[in-house]
Amino acid sequence: MTEHPLIMFVVFPLLGYVIGSTPFGVLIARAHGIDLRRAGSGNVGATNVGRAVGRPWGYLVFALDCIKGFLPVLAAGAMLRGRAGFPTAAHQAAWLAVGCGTIIGHVLSFWLKFRGGKGVATSLGVVMGVFPYFTYAGLAALVIWLVVVLASRYVSLASIVAAVAFLPLFVVFSLAMGWPVVGLWPLLAFAGAIAALIIVRHRGNIRRLLAGTENRIGSSGADAEQRPSAREG
């Protein structure tokens, strides 16, 4: 296992950033002759792909965005956990640095002039890859997301609720598993940061939810919501 700080805190996060920057939604829409940033809501994520290209393609983009968050973090964790025992704060920080790089790549993709998506699917992939510490809370948050989507038909509302629920879920599962929560403070900070990022990236959606103009699943996207910039996407 290599633990050189330059590799763990610079090289690997940069690799995560490059992987996270891959704009699957834009590429798939372009393959169908559609400029995703000018279609539907203008967002570059899976929801708008579903509206502009077709729901199956939206599911595919969601899966791909999850995978690009999952694989780099899983690989970093496999290297960092080459020794037995509870991960130190430094190992947690190095592990999470890769996840941060991947999420930042999705949100600020260099392919899109440092614009990008809202980070929900990629963040989900990252938390699933931080096994087992984030995985159970991530699965529970995914269930909450599905319940809210089915009940409200608002993807944005479901994403916000799941993000807010993730930190307390992580604490509950940590206590249930007997993990020392204080010893997991880098993971705690990261869980809070993910929730804050997703809420900030959905600030336009929050305004529309409060105004009653937010787009529901099944609506066209052009009629029910004003087109935000790709930076909000």
> Which of globular, elongated, flat, extended, rod-shaped describes the shape?
globular
Alpha-beta classification? mainly alpha
Summarize the helix and strand pattern as letters: HHHHHHHHHH
- Unreliable segments of 5+ consecutive residues: 221-233
The total number of structural domains is 1
Please give the alpha-carbon distance between the first and last residues: 38 Å
Q: Could you give the count of β-strands?
A: 0
- Major sheet characteristics: none
Gyration radius (Cα, Å) is 18 Å
* Mean pLDDT score: 90
Strand proportion: under 5%
Estimated helix fraction: 55-70%
Walk me through what this model shows:
- It is a single chain.
- The protein has one domain.
- It is globular, with a radius of gyration of 18 Å.
- Helix 2 packs parallel to helix 3 and helix 7 runs antiparallel to helix 8.
- The N and C termini lie far apart (38 Å).
- Helix content is 66%, strand content 0%.
- The chain has 10 helices and no strands.
- The chain is mainly alpha-helical and 233 residues long.
- Residues 221-233 have low confidence and may be disordered.
